[in-house]
Amino acid sequence: MPRFDSQSGMKILKGDFQVKKAAYIFPGQGSQHVGMGRDVYERYQEARSVFDKASDAVGLDLKALCFQGSEDNLRLTTNTQPAILTTSLAILACLDISDQMFFAGHSLGEFTALVAGGALDMEEAVKLVRDRGRFMQEAVPPDIGGMSAIIGLDVPDVENICKTARGSGQVWPANYNCPGQIVISGQREGVKKAVELAENRGAKRSIILSVSIPSHCPLMKGAADRLTERLSDIALKDLTTPVVSNCWAVPVRNETEIRKALIQQLTSPVRWEESVRLMIKQGVTTFVEVGPGKVLTGLIKRIDRKMDLINVFDAEGIERLKETVYGGHVWT
Fold first, then answer.
1. Is residue 3 part of a domain?
2. List 107, 168, 185, 275, catalytic entry
């Protein structure tokens, strides 16, 4: 039976954790914050090496950006993407990930998953996501696109709302995150109309996201074309541990599938709920979120509360996970 640590408030499951039933998952854009990764960099040589190599690869001081930069500067897509990727990989470098069932990442986090699985070189990945961010930023003129989270409606309702709202502007479902939470994306007027229709339909609330880039929808076609060309110069390797694709919600292993998935991801919705349910169906009982924030484990709680969830976003989390693996405890 689980017990609770009265000081930390964390659930402790004695002896229930099995490494072979774990999936390691990685966050995407929106999880960034100033200061992320700093204590990990200061404590672990492995993390310092990742930050230093990534900074050299893109000619950008990622330590300054992540540890002490401004929120506005960190929020710029061309900065956010390499910053989150590098922070997640720096934390990952301090862990033993030799035995797990799946890797998966939300949007940008899929690149972290591919590096973890050995399909993509770390320095190449950092350069690639910086270009990806630029392609996305330049695909749609400023102040044209937008995104909003719709809370409290089911999938058919949101899909029908988007179809109706297209009379005002193009809009589509972009992230199927968890039951009752779907993010929509498209032209700003279409998003606004969809939000209005959702509220009239009985949505609990809607949240206009503070972004100008309409991610994961057909408006990213130009970015996808440029990413296709960029990927043609990159050597990808087959995976030994499968990565669950965002756009298909199925595991991919070979370099042909990986290349197609990364391109299609830009114009297709993130099927996160389906991805999580697939991993659970395949036997996963523990999800370890590696990287800044707790967004993904928060979503998984709404998908299946029986899962064991572990967050590793700082040095304390790294040490806690080491004790989990070798000491037979699980903290969630």
1. no
2. 107
Centre a 10 Å sphere on the Cβ of residue 165 and count the other Cβ atoms it contains: 25
Residues 61 and 168 in one domain: no
Is residue 194 domain-resident?
yes
Catalytic residue among 216, 245, 268, 275: 216
Asked whether residue 322 falls in the same domain as residue 196, the answer is no
Contacts of 138 (CB under 8 A, 6+ apart): 222, 223
Domain with 181 in it: 145-208
CB neighbours of 237 closer than 8 A, spacing ≥ 6? 118, 119, 120, 255
Whether 33 is catalytic: no
pLDDT in tens, the chain (332 residues): 233 232 333 333 334 455 568 999 999 998 999 999 999 999 999 999 999 999 999 999 999 999 998 999 998 899 999 999 999 999 999 998 877 889 999 999 999 999 999 999 999 999 999 999 999 999 998 889 999 999 999 999 999 999 999 999 999 999 999 999 999 999 999 999 999 999 999 999 999 887 779 999 999 999 999 999 999 989 999 998 999 999 999 999 999 999 999 999 999 999 999 999 999 999 999 999 999 999 999 999 999 999 999 999 999 999 988 887 655 444 43
How many domains, in total, are found in the chain? 2
Q: Is 329 a catalytic residue?
A: no
Q: What is the chain's length?
A: 332
Alpha helices in the chain (DSSP H): 38-43, 45-58, 62-68, 71-75, 77-92, 109-116, 122-139, 155-165, 188-201, 221-231, 255-265, 272-281, 295-303, 315-327
Domain boundary among 183, 208, 233: 208
- Alpha-carbon distance values, 264 to 24, 122, 226 (Å): 22, 21, 12
Report the relative pairing of strands 286-290 and 22-26 from DSSP bridges: parallel
Domain boundary residue among 208, 235, 251?
208
